[in-house]
Amino acid sequence: MTLNRGTVVSLDEKPVNNPIDEKAARQVAEAAREQKWERPSFAKGLYMGDFDWELIHPHPQQDHETAARGAKFMQKLREAIKSIDPAVIEREARIPDADIKILRELGAFGMKIPVEYGGLGLSLADYGRALMLVGTLNPSLGALLSAHQSIGVPEPVKMFGTEEQKRKFLPRCAQGAISAFLLTENDVGSDPARLGTTATLSDDGKSYTINGAKLWTTNGVVAELLVVMAAVPPHESGDGTKTRGGISAFVVEADSPGIIVENRNAFMGLRGIENGVTRFHDVSVPIENRLGKEGAGLKIALSTLNTGRLSIPAMCAGAGKWSLKIAREWSNARVQWGKPVGKHEAVGKKIAYIAASTFALESVFELSAALADAGMKDVRIEAALAKLFSSEVSCKIADELLQIRGGRGYETAQSLHARGERAVPVEQLVRDLRINRIFEGSTEIMHLLIAREAVDAHLKAAGDLANKDADLQAKAKAALGASGFYAKWLPTLALGSGLLPNSYSDHGHLAKYLRFIERASRRLARHTFAGMATWQAGMENHQAFLGRVVDVGAELFAMAACISRVELMRTQDPKNAASAELLALAFCEQSEHRCETLFKDLWANSDKTDRKLSKKVLAGDFQWLEAGIIDNSEGTGEWIAPWSSETLEDKRHPYGS
After folding, report:
1. b/e burial code for range 613-638 (CB count within 10 A of at least 16 → b)
2. Does pTM surpass 0.90?
3. Which of 132, 230, 515, 537 could form a disulfide with 199, with the two C-beta atoms 3.0–4.6 Å apart?
């Protein structure tokens, strides 16, 4: 059956039966990784006990022309969006067409697209600053622009597209043809090996036919162009050559016959986000719309996310800045027990945390973006750490701000305004930020992803020692090979510049924290090695341990970013350098205490008991504990929805239509 745009249709497809075991799932994920390290990585060094300060200091800077182009656009953007009313977006749960028109006329949909293809050619740093500005007006605006440019059509086409594909799609995107990225399915999230959407090559080899369904398609409800990940079945080419196929990436016209947007999803936050369920029934896509080779889809997705994830840290930094402003103004205005609430230590501690953490958020974003723009470093770990750190810290900042505001923090801006008070949307901030700990890699997935990269050298050295399927003979052989690597590496962890009291003395008061980072880096590497030695192939099952290892590295990276930024400000912004140093000192002191707690928890924890308890909970041993409540969700639907067999109406509604 062929679907035409705007028709009401009946879908009777059945889910693709795609049983994948744990081993196969790991193999697919591993194959999608970038296997080599051809450029240095500061963050990777932190996990290996190699604190190379010179990789991030002096702080990378933009050239004059790039900086001027970014500053000019930021000025135009700030002026243009003054007419956008964020309360309308929140109230109507949709970004008005007029607001989209403003962004299109500014060229905001082509910020990252090179000038030669009709875009603005902004740096990642300036792109992030623009998202920061727009995101503080309303996060749904930031999500729209970010999903379009960071993970939608522009980035993968720019990175992996042919010249013909770039000239075909990039100018359209720059002019405001909104795009979306479609990977997730009803029962497929961060485990793409189970992907059910298929793309079957035609007999004449000129096109693919896509069948399947995608969930949580950000921008999918309004998109004109889609990047779709689909599994190409093994097949024979025209000359009889057998091809393995595999997960592949396709650029698809959103109004192609056979595509239907089944539902526009609604969420606790980001009320203006256009996110839906998109289904494909015999959708024909020309072969020239495939990005890269067959089977390269996951590598394309992961490579795109390496820098695409930096949009989240940018908007999180913006949220921190707004929170700091509100906390400062409110804590001076509100008086209790004879003095402003901010002067009570209980509140003052929260203000100090917000201020120091906001400085760290911006420092982490600025450093990560600058490293990516410079192109001389491998930033896959830095970008992932930035996303992990920023999403967690910004949520805590928002929660602390809500506590400072008290009942007014819990009250909606609309209600505050209705009774004559300033419409401060703190509860909206809490709701809007919460998704950042989930999408583009949840905190738990980021822990595993970063841990995999951080222990890459160990896994290569250990070989079959880290392979639970290897036999004893293979493990014995691997042990001999590993001994050579560790004989050279382990001694380097004993001594370092962090033990010398005069090290980094040219950095003044911050020198002590550079010495701490260096010592902590070697200490972290020793603990990681101890974990590898203890559990070997079972290391991957100790996810709580790996999560703490990653979190220590995130704190060290943030500390280093703060110090690097202070040193940059001494020359670029000397007026504010002294106050920046105090912010950095406060963050580093707070971070050092968090690191010490994480180090302690690596080995002294409740992990063993928690594993035992969780298994028994899943087995139903504690159902008695659930007695005495009413679950209103029972009987309302399946845990994971099957493919529809009911009559569906297309919910797609492009802006301006």
Report:
1. eeeeeeeeeeeeeeeeeeeeeeeeee
2. yes
3. 230
